[in-house]
Amino acid sequence: MNSKINIKQLTSLAKEASVVAGKAILEIYNSADFGVEMKGDNSPLTKADQAAHQVIENFLEKTGLPILSEEGKDIPYEVRKVWDYFWMVDPLDGTKEFIKKNGEFTVNIALIHEGQPILGVVYAPVLGWLYWGNKEEGAWKQEGSATAFQLKKRFSSEVKTIVASRSHLSPETQDFIDQYPGVEVISMGSSLKFMLVAEGKAQVYPRFAPTMEWDTAAAHGVILAMNGHMLQWPNNHIINYNKIDLLNPYFITFLLEINLNKKK
Asked: Is 95 annotated as a binding residue?
């Protein structure tokens, strides 16, 4: 790894940035005016997205590493392709959940190197849940001011519970679920779906609907810190970041080797 990169220090910085951004988000969450606008792709944007972006940028720009944020400026691939390390940020993942006030939204910060997230931080401000992970320290969760605990692979590989998106339950996803008779299906908003897998509350998360790289990078970093998997579906190729097109392919996420009953 590059001598200028101290993964533990950068993880600590990203954790701090996410918590401070979370405070900025909660100020708006608890106010009467979210300032909702619609972006060009018809997805919502709020004052909270913009406030969190500014907070995170202020923290991360100290590192001198490039920042690619959902709410930042568009950066051409010709510029991005030469980046060795860079931050990938979704300042508020789950804006629809924010607007609904169900608390299931997160701040996502990842550090990408050679197409892979080498650290990930996911923070749910309303719930007070902070997740982080890197290959040196493993994956961890802290709930509020309680002592952090390490997330470990200690669960059955039998598929008993599948986590799926409430708002993006595509026919392909339903077909996947139907291959496991009697399976329980649970859901949470934003990157918290990945964290249900990390905590062993679900064995697999299939996502057969559009996502962007910043939607998944931080949670993917936590999963990789546990030696888990996020693979393209159905070819099982690895997911790469900083592509020309920042749209993710369909994927599945799991920790242990599971019985993937693929329909022919």
From this structure: yes
What's the pLDDT score for residue 257? 73
Query: Which pLDDT score is estimated for 110?
Result: 98
- Do 17 and 56 meet the contact criterion of CB atoms below 8 Å apart? yes
Using CA atoms in the order 252, 73, 134, 97, what is the torsion angle rounded to 10 degrees? -50
Alpha-carbon span 264 to 129, nearest angstrom: 40
Note the pLDDT of residue 2: 46
Residues 110, 92: contact at Cβ < 8 Å? no
Structural domains in the chain, sorted by start: 7-151 (3.30.540.10), 161-254 (3.40.190.80)
Structure confidence at residue 19 (pLDDT): 98
Give the DSSP H/E element, type plus range, for residue 99. Answer: helix 95-100
Q: Is 137 annotated among the ligand-binding residues?
A: no
Helix (H) or strand (E) holding 220: helix 213-225
| Residue 84, marked binder | no
pTM, rounded to two decimals: 0.93
Three-state secondary-structure class, residue 16: helix
* 94 labelled ligand-binding: yes
Could you say which residues of the chain have pLDDT below 50? 1-2, 263-264
70 is in an annotated binding site: yes
